[in-house]
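Ops channel
N.P.: pipeline sanity check, posting one input/output pair.
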């Protein structure tokens, strides 16, 4: 059966995304050359420019893909629990653990804010995973687990703290750093509970 043009375009795009992801994670944004990504993906440089317009366009698409996957990973971990508090803890722990993934660390946490700029990176984060945190906090207010309060600043504080902790954890060696980070996270989160007052 003949491959349609649409299938061929989709395959080319997937190949470029996969190779771009591999190279951005391994070498960092500034060391990647779009023509080399295209060659390694088995497509022409013109095809790479047709699909993404530039190296920045390819990087933006890779960041969106990785952030989406991370958001799904966090949501899946949270959904394993019925209790809203345990959903929050599971989602936060999964996000922190993802910082040890070299793809997430290099592409999402290190290069994306610098390359795309804080505003664009933050907007992409909102679309993929930050909304899960906001939804978890809304559930906790609704159930009375945490006090009624403005949730946007709280979500941003927790998100920023977790981004920094994920970076620190990714650079720290050994399971003790992970255990220390989880204990610190639990102390931070427990300070939000009404029964902690």
């Amino acid at each position: 059966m003949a491959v349609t043009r649409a299938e061929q375009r989709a395959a080319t795009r997937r190949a470029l995304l996969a190779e771009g992801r591999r190279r951005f994670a391994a070498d960092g944004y500034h060391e990647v050359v779009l023509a080399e990504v295209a060659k390694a993906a088995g497509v022409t440089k013109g095809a790479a420019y047709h699909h993404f317009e530039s190296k920045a366009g390819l990087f933006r698409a890779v960041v969106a893909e990785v952030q989406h996957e991370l958001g799904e990973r966090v949501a899946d971990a949270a959904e394993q629990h019925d209790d809203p508090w345990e959903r929050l803890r599971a989602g936060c722990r999964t996000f922190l653990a993802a910082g040890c993934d070299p793809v997430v660390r290099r592409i999402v946490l290190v290069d994306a804010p610098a390359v795309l700029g804080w505003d664009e990176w933050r907007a992409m984060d909102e679309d993929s995973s930050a909304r899960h945190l906001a939804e978890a906090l809304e559930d906790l207010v609704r159930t009375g687990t945490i006090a009624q309060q403005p949730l946007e600043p709280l979500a941003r504080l927790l998100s920023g703290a977790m981004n920094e902790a994920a970076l620190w954890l990714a650079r720290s060696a050994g399971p003790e750093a992970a255990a220390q980070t989880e204990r610190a996270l639990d102390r931070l989160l427990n300070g939000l509970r009404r029964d902690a007052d």
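N.P.: looks fine end to end. The chain has two domains: 1-52, 64-190.
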